[in-house]
Amino acid sequence: MNLGAQMNTDGPGSLRLVMTLAIAGLISGIAIIGIYESTLPTITANKARELREAVFKVLPGVSEMQQLVYRDGQLIPTEERRKDEQAVYGGYDREGDFVGYAIPAAGPGFQDTIGLLYGYTPQRKQVLGMEVLESRETPGLGDKIYKDADFVGSFSQLSIDPNIIAVKKGTKSRPNEIDAITGATISSKAVVRIINEAHVEWSVRLPLPGAEPPLREAENASAGDSP
Amino acid sequence: MKKNESYEEFIKGIWRDNPVFVQVLGMCPMLAVTNSAINAIAMGMATFFVLVGSSFLVSSFRSWIPKQVRISCFIIIIATFVTVADYTLLALVPKVHKELGAFIPLIVANCMILGRQEAFSSRYPVRLAVMDAIGMAGGFLLALFSLGAIREILGDGALFGFDLFGENFEPWVIMILPPGGFLTLGVILLFFNWFRFKKDEFLAEVAAAERGGN
């Protein structure tokens, strides 16, 4: 009692200090949970839409997609994916026929990791399209890897047999060569290297052409079929 | 009189005590995200929201917060506002959020914000604290925007992504690279200091003339 009274005259007691911080922390925690919960659906929807749009962009002519998880040496169409598992996206046309894979890949760029998605058809061993998902490349220079329409466009129907080679602008002569961007050679070569590395990694995992996993019936479609 | 007081607190942040050009605070976001006008504005708006919100709360609770734990309380309040800004930007404008990246969480570490709480909001009533915060955040936004606009125009030949000079403009690429931030900031600081010295000289001359006249 005496001690408590003594401390009170010196200023606020420890209890008051602890309580102040505890209350501040509690209110802050509630506010953060509130904003997290209220923005999460929008953020998840944004990410899913971004991915869908990217898949449709790198695989022209695709109208359906599904996630294919690489598990026990084969590709399994499933929505669930564990943290350590890798996945690609299968693209299918209106009849449900397989068009190609959209393969996510990442690697070091000029400044930071470049994450991208590329469309690949095993039948023709071609890259169908490329879309940069994340990069911190230099604005005005390295960011041309996704802003320069010519560069992005050159990844359409590009042969990847055995790999892609970036050459100086204007010297492209073979079907597996692309023009690097003037002033952003390192970033353009990084994009090519990332695709090549992912190609080496995935080409042994993908099933033989013609044996791709078929499009799983979507739940709403099967519900519509039943009487 | 009262109106004057609020106005004074507001205008000092915009010009006389501009947090960037005069106090040279908040240099990290200043140099990092001003490579385009739109990034600079997004960063300025986020900082504006955080500073005005925290100043309001700190000033409202200033008599309840024991001074021994005031810094921790300020940081909790600031960090909460930053998290709210972070998630809001991510949900509403994911593209801008991607560009700003790690610099949004780093608003917490902007010494200008903590500095205003310690120097002003924790000592003055809510109205003045909010006016001060609006002035300071406005000054910060203005500074970020002018740097961002100059760097984008010179380095990319564009403003807000619109091409200004056509095909023949050779972009001055270094201006959007990190050194460009230092160069532009240096030149602007030079101008501000030159202006201040001129003003002081002028005032001294006026005073001398008045004394001589008398």
Describe the protein's architecture and organization:
The complex is a heterodimer of chains A (227) and B (214). Chain A has helices at residues 2-10, 14-58, 144-147, 149-153, 185-203, 219-225, and strands spanning 64-71, 74-77, 86-92, 98-108, 113-121, 126-134, 158-159, 165-167, 177-179. In chain A, 39% of the residues lie in helices and 25% in strands. Chain A folds into 2 domains: 2-45; 59-203, no CATH class. Chain A has 227 residues and is of the alpha+beta class. In chain A, the strands form 2 sheets. Chain A has a 7-stranded antiparallel β-sheet. The radius of gyration of chain A is 26 Å and the shape is globular. Chain A is built from 6 helices and 9 strands, in the order H-H-E-E-E-E-E-E-H-H-E-E-E-H-H. Chain B has 214 residues and is mainly α. Chain B has one domain (2-213). Helix content of chain B is 71%, strand content 2%. Chain B is built from 8 helices and 2 strands; from the N terminus they run αααααααββα. Chain B has helices at residues 2-16, 27-32, 37-60, 70-92, 94-100, 111-121, 126-156, 178-213; strands at 158-159, 162-163. Chain B has a two-stranded antiparallel ribbon with strand order 1-2. In chain B, helix 3 (37-60) runs parallel beside helix 6, helix 4 packs across helix 5 (94-100) and helix 7 (126-156) packs across helix 8 (178-213). The mean pLDDT of chain B is 87. The A-B interface holds A 11-12, 16-17, 20-21, 24-25, 27-28, 31-32, 35-36, 39, 42-43, 46, 50, 134, 136, 138-141, 183 and B 35-36, 64-66, 68-69, 72-73, 76-77, 79-80, 83-84, 87-88, 90-92, 94, 98, 101, 155-156, 171, 173, 176-177.
Features:
heterodimer, A: 227 residues, alpha+beta, two-stranded parallel ribbon, 6 helices, disordered C terminus, B: mainly alpha, flat
